[in-house]
Amino acid sequence: MEKAFAGLRVLDFSTTIAGPHCTRLLADLGAEVIKIESPEGDMMRTRPPLRAGASTSFGQLNAGKKSVVLDLKSAESVAAVRALIATVDILVENFRPGVMQRLGLDYDAIAPLNPRLIYCAISGYGQSGPSSQLPAYAPVVHAAAGYDLTHLRYQEGRTRPDYCGVFFADVAAGTYAFGAIATALHHRHVTGRGQMVDVSMLETMMGFTLTELQGAQFDVPPMGRPMFGPLQCADGYLMVAVASEKTFQNFAQAAGHADWITDPRFARYSDRRTNWGQLMDIAEVWSRELTTAQCQARFDEFGVPCSPYRTVAQAMADPQIEHRQALAAVHDAGGSFKVLNPPFRLSDADVSAGAHSASLGEHTEAVLRGAGLDDEQIARLTGQR
Questions:
Q1: Among 136, 152, 349, 367, which residue's CB has the most CB atoms within a 10 Å radius?
Q2: What residue ranges do the domains of the chain occupy?
Q3: Is the domain covering 230-313 a CATH 1.10.357.120 domain?
Q4: How far is CA 94 from CA 186, 197, 269, 293, 302, in A?
Q5: Per-residue confidence at 125, pLDDT binned at 50, 70, 90?
């Protein structure tokens, strides 16, 4: 099958996670993504795992892209970028607001070069406003958005916020940027005009706190023990999601306690929510006699959503992942490794990851020559003269 974005060209100035995640999705859908890197390269190139100096962390975020090295401190390099801008459909950057303006590469400066250009800027707090100039990485944005304290509310007996090791804000902001770019592409198809796309990581993270956003505005009755948590079994824990009346009834029957359905402590949702801790204490008297596999089998039989707590390696080995062909092989200087394909499938277009992760500057000469630069200009830009 063909790729849905085949024929589109992207100039990618982004680094680390949020921007590269966005542009890898564009590459997966067939866009030609030209990654502009400094002579030192994207900092993710040094992140482990490293094999023969090649980072699979970098490769996961940048598979299928071309790498062009340009020192943007050089006026000649900026001139080369301006030549490239006239040839592309999309530009993505995630610098702190103001950096591209100082380079003369902000949207207002370059839109006249290419009125159809879709220019996407991803930043911590947005391109304008009192916080726009603050430095921001995902863990800081998690705290600023209220996400961390919201998460803490659901951890019984704890008052210290968790450490951060999974960067939701980066991945989610990159995904929103991808969606916004696709929206702008449709708008361009209708109007013939490009536009600026401004993605805020802060607002992205606030979108995760759906219930709490309303609870911050209106009185909400205090809850008892959180309703979604681990159920103890003989050899570990199981996550069980009892989120509807039918699921609760099936949960009770799976545990051999149909009496819970009419028990005044649990029969109505409001009472069940208040007394959830009591329900779980009783349920664990039953579940602790079973292994997680036995307990899961029982819940599966009755249609109760549940899962054992798994490592990423265990999730990767899930037969469902194999069935969906969710993992793709990518090759770089160190060999091969696996990355996730996009989590969606199209019936008439291929969405698989590119099979190659480029070495630093691998495509510099070819891309610059394609932009109309001559051999002497390319030699100066690549340090060969």
A1: 367
A2: 9-209+324-381, 230-313
A3: no
A4: 23, 12, 45, 45, 47
A5: very high
